[in-house]
Each structure stands twice: as structure tokens, then as C-alpha cells.
Amino acid sequence: xxxxxxxxxxxxxxxxxxxxxxxxxxxxxxxxxxxxxxxxxxxxxxxxxxxxxxxxxxxxxxxxxxxxxxxxxxxxxxxxxxxxxxxxxxxxxxxxxxxxxxxxxxxxxxxxxxxxxxxxxxxxxxxxxxxxxxxxxxxxxxxxxxxxxxxxxxxxxxxxxxxxxxxxxxxxxxxxxxxxxxxxxxxxxxxxxxxxxxxxxxxxxxxxxxxxxxxxxxxxxxxxxxxxxxxxxxxxxxxxxxxxxxxxxxxxxxxxxxxxxxxxxxxxxxxxxxxxxxxxxxxxxxxxxxxxxxxxxxxxxxxxxxxxxxxxxxxxxxxxxxxxxxxxxxxxxxxxxxxxxxxxxxxxxxxxxxxxxxxxxxxxxxxxxxxxxxxxxxxxxxxxxxxxxxxxxxxxxxxxxxxxxxxxxxxxxxxxxxxxxxxxxxxxxxxxxxxxxxxxxxxxxxxxxxxxxxxxxxxxxxxxxxxxxxxxxxxxxxxxxxxxxxxxxxxxxxxxxxxxxxxxxxxxxxxxxxxxxxxxxxxxxxxxxxxxxxxxxxxxxxxxxxxxxxxxxxxxxxxxxxxxxxxxxxxxxxxxxx
Length: 578
Prior knowledge:
The chain is α+β, with helices and mostly antiparallel strands. It has helices at about 10-30, 245-250, 255-280, 310-320, 325-335, 370-380, 390-395, 400-410, 420-450, 450-470, 475-495, 505-520, 525-530, 560-575, and strands at about 40-50, 55-65, 70-75, 80, 85-90, 90-100, 100-105, 105-110, 115-120, 130-135, 140, 150-160, 165-175, 185-190, 195, 200, 210-215, 220-230, 240, 290-295, 300-305, 340-345, 355-360, 550. Strands 7-6-10-2-1-13-17-16 form an 8-stranded mixed beta sheet, with no helix packed on it. Strands 11-12-18-14-15 form a 5-stranded antiparallel beta sheet, with no helix packed on it. Strands 3-9-8 form a 3-stranded antiparallel beta sheet, with no helix packed on it. β1 and β2 (about 55-65) form a beta hairpin.
């Protein structure tokens, strides 16, 4: 290796001249402060040795011009940042501080990533202070280079963290016998702005071992010596650890990004397949005709139900949930089928709300189980009928029974393979459990690895699973076909001319349409059609409809307002309970 003697003596002479000149100026102005000899060591000599196992022994001899300071401190770094969010860790052991062979009983402690050595140097008198310690972790294996011998790099700040400045710094590191250095470097100065040392050399006739000189150095400045030797002569003993940062935890480079991207693609594909297999309806083929308007005479048509799909079941088939609108449609359907009469109660003035009650009748029309529950709740055979304003109390114990019965009915009809609410609840629990597990995985991945992006992807996929869970269940092919027929019927109710019902029984024929219009749409136009069918305009019609009775001064023209108010009040009460 080449040596760099430089011009250290010339540099020191120039520096001394500058300092002397500045001191003379301040002394002339009466501003110069008296110098303190114990703030500056005259020399700092390092004697080190590298063992075959990579451990580094350091002995520092610090000489003062007179007695040393009463509080001499040195802070030795126990970590050093590296690339890729890693750091080297150093184990510093066997620390001693002596003077003239006498133990100065140093105080040795830690302060974050530093080992702190403190001693009263004034006890040494005029004897130099000798600080010795051993470092494990300063020998690092260099990346292998083809067709070259493996190397171990030893790098250590032989001067660091000293609480006093030093005039001259020098030192030599002994190597195992017959060990040749391949490279050497020496830098000095403030830790954040290092520059080349005054001189350094190794492997020459005059400097077989790594040597250096430098100075002067201020308080806290460093001298860092780095050299490489064959790995066969000195083993690496580096201790490399990762340190946590947000950038490391959520890195978007290399393997973590690739794994996160793969998880996202595979997870999204899995959610898509799950939705297709569990949440998408089976192929229903052509829509099944549910209802139609059949001609009965020239210019006259009547509504005929082709499939026995009750209004209360339609909403569940359409949106897979039992809602208050389904119960409302069921009550109107029960009334027009003759099982009860909806009675509008008189009210004192327009400032009071309209209220209704129910009157039960016997009918040969067959009831579904959920219809029986509704009928018994609002108009019990052996009790007093309820009013709409108090219906919440009457049905509070039976709404769940109605929902269960409707869910069971749509399964019995073969429209769903399993109860929609049970399927949703099961998948919903799976979704929430998955979200919880993935949140824990996110915390662990971010805390202990660089795969935080994978954790975010997993949480996103878990939320996706939660969304998919609410799209369950899938309708059977029969259910999908019936749903298609209901969509056709909804379009028919919205476009069918309302003035083609047979005149002789228009009230009954239009009334049969109303429950279906409640859940499928078009109610306004069919209510208007029923009001327009009034055969005696201007005359009160309190009981012209078999299924809806009103006060004595009520007319069919009031029907749209009355029914809309009835539906609004009933659903508002049921939604409060729902």
C-alpha cells in the first residue's frame, strides 16, 4: 500500500501560527479568555490488535499537560447504521481505565446506543490516562468477488466521543502474523463531515501494520480507521440487526413488493371466484312468467297470477332480506284477499294524524305460515285488533317470527338453497374474523419485518371478503328464473294501461294489483286508477271497497292519500322496530 505522509508538520505549523495570531488580537483587545490545559490533551495514542477471531483490542493513552480534568468522559457507539434499514451492533467488553498502573475506578454505563466511560482524570496527576477495551463486531465479511480471495473488513473509530480535544492523534493496529492488508482508509473530523486523515499507511516497509496520524481534533470529533485482510487470517464477527422504521416496514421495493403484489392478485382472484360460486345466482335460463294481464273482453284485461308468488315473498327474493315493506305488502294483500279489512278511523281535525285498525274475517283462501303470524298479530281471532299507531308493541315479539317464516318459505319454494340470513351471517362472521386476523398480521408484519405492504393487502382482501359476505347467498336456477319474471312484471306494472280493467268489477281487479305494486313499483298510477274507477263521483264511498273502509265522508278520490299515509305510517312504525 502507498503511504500518505502529506505535510502534517507544515499544516500544524500553519495552524499554530493562525491560533497564535488570533490569540494576540484578542489579547490586544482585552477579550482573550485564559486557556485551560485540562480541556485539551496533548497526545492521544492508540495501540490496537486484531485477533484471528475478529475481536479488536484497543488501548488509548491520553496525555495532558498537567493534571487531567475532573470529569473525563468517552462515549463509544454500540451501533452503526447500514443500508436497507439494518445496523451493526458492537459488544464492548473488558473496559479498564488506569494511570501509572493504578485503577482509576471508572464509572461505566449506557446511554441509548452508547457505552459511556466516565473518570476523574485529575487523580492521575501527571501520569497519562490509559483506557482499554475489547470490541466484538467490528470485523465484517465483504461481498465475495469472483476469482479473488474472501476478505474481512475491520472498521473502527479509534477516536470517538471524547469530552476533550486532542492536539496529536496517532496509532497502530497489530495484525495476526504474516497477514497482509489489501486496503486501508482513514477519515477524521466531525462525525457528519469526515475528511482524510493527515497520514495513513499499511503493508509498506516502514508500516507493516495499519498506522495513522492526525490532529488536532476537537471535542467529540472522530478518527475512523478501515482496512481489509484475508478472511482466512481474520474471521468476520459482525452482528447485523434490522431496526424498525415505517419505510422499512412498508417498503415498496424488492421481495416485499413482489409478495404483496402476488397476494393482491391471488386474493382478488379468490374473492372473484368466491363471489361467482357463492354469491352469484345460478343460471336461471329464461325468466319465468309470474303475472300477466289477460284479455277478457274487447278492450278489457284482468291481472292473472301465473306463479304463486305472494307479495311478502317478492322483496326477499329480490334483495334477499325481509324488510318492513314486505310486511306492509302482506297486510294489504291479506286485506284484498278477504282475510281482514283495513279501517281508517275518524279524526277530529286535519291537525291530528290519521290512524287505522283492522277487522278480521274468515276466508277459504289458504295462508302461508308467515301470513298467519301477521294476521294473528294485528287482528287476533280471540282478541282486540290493534291500531297502526300502536302496532309496534303488538308485533315486537312476532317480527322475528315473521322474518324466520318468510326465509323458510323462500327456501321451501326452492328459490334459495339455504336461508339467506343464515348464509349472510355465517359469511359475515368469517369476514369479521378474517379482518381481525389480518389486522393482527399487519401489526406483526410491520413490527418485525419489511412486509408491511403484505399486511395492508391482507387487510384489504379481508374487507373485500366482508363485502362479498353481504352479497350472499346465491339464488337457485329456479329462484333466478322467478327473479327474471318479477323484473318483467315490474316493467309491466309500470307501463300497463290502467283503464283496461273490466268496468263491472274494476274495484276488485285493480285492488289485486296493489300489493304487487307496493313492492315492485307503480303504486301511484294504480291507486289513481282505482280512484278514477269511482262509479258515483262526488258521493261518499266509505265502504265501496271490500278491503278498505273509511269515515262516512270519505270518497274514492281520497284513496291515494289514505293508502300512501297508511303505508308511510305502518312502515315508519315497523322500521323503528326493525
